[in-house]
Specification:
α2 crosses α3 and α6 crosses α7. This protein has one domain: P-loop containing nucleotide triphosphate hydrolases (Rossmann fold, 3-Layer(aba) Sandwich). The protein has a 5-stranded parallel beta sheet, with helices on both faces. The chain is of the alpha/beta class. It is globular. Helix content is 59%, strand content 13%. The protein is built from 9 helices and 5 strands; from the N terminus they run βαβαααβαβαααβα.
Length: 190
């Protein structure tokens, strides 16, 4: 299986769909959110810096994220493909990821873009905040995250388009339908 970059706004289901893809295809999974939360929980220097930025709705510096991702990527079994969940979020990060993978003789594979309307995203994130007790999911921070996404991350979709690896999937009100559409596409890559 090729590497997959799962892409979308906060709350679009990147983690949920990544888990389903990993289960079906036996891929490695790098969730930047999980990796960063792990660092925060450990109280490492990286974790402390990340917590401060996340609490403000800001992105982690590119060089720091690439170091963390390279270490995690190298620890995964080779040959099964890896799904990148929550990274890259900027053109500079995409270029750095492309270079990091090329240095290992690998490529980015495909980008799976999840398109979900903002009202649905807000509702999902607030529900997640209640269920998981996530401090980074409150109305003010969510609005800031949407703003960061629109200004810094969304333009990356055009970069993936130029690379010829962008594939979009639009939410139609059903997780099962979205998943079926994604699986139908990924099955063509085997």
């Amino acid at each position: 299986m090729k590497n997959i970059i799962i892409f979308g706004a906060p709350g679009s289901g990147k983690g949920t769909y990544s888990d389903e893809i990993v289960t079906r295809y036996g891929m490695g999974h790098i969730s930047t959110g999980d990796v960063l939360r792990g660092e925060i929980k450990q109280g490492s220097d990286i974790g402390k810096m990340a917590k401060e930025l996340i609490d403000k709705g800001q992105l982690i510096p590119d060089d720091l994220m690439i170091q963390i991702l390279a270490k995690t990527y190298d620890s995964l079994p080779q040959g099964c493909g890896v799904i990148f969940d929550g990274f890259p979020r900027t053109i500079a990060q995409a270029e750095a990821l492309k270079l990091m993978l090329q240095e290992r003789g690998h490529d980015m594979g495909v980008m799976v873009e999840l398109i979900v309307d903002e009202d649905t995203l807000m509702e999902r994130l607030l529900r997640r905040a209640q269920i998981e007790g996530r401090a980074d999911d409150n109305v003010e921070t969510i609005k800031k995250r949407f703003e960061v996404y629109h200004n810094q991350t969304e333009p990356l979709a055009a970069w993936f388009e130029k690379e010829g690896i962008r594939h979009t999937f639009t939410w139609e009100g059903s997780k099962d339908q979205m998943l079926a559409n994604i699986f139908a596409f990924l099955d063509t890559l085997k």
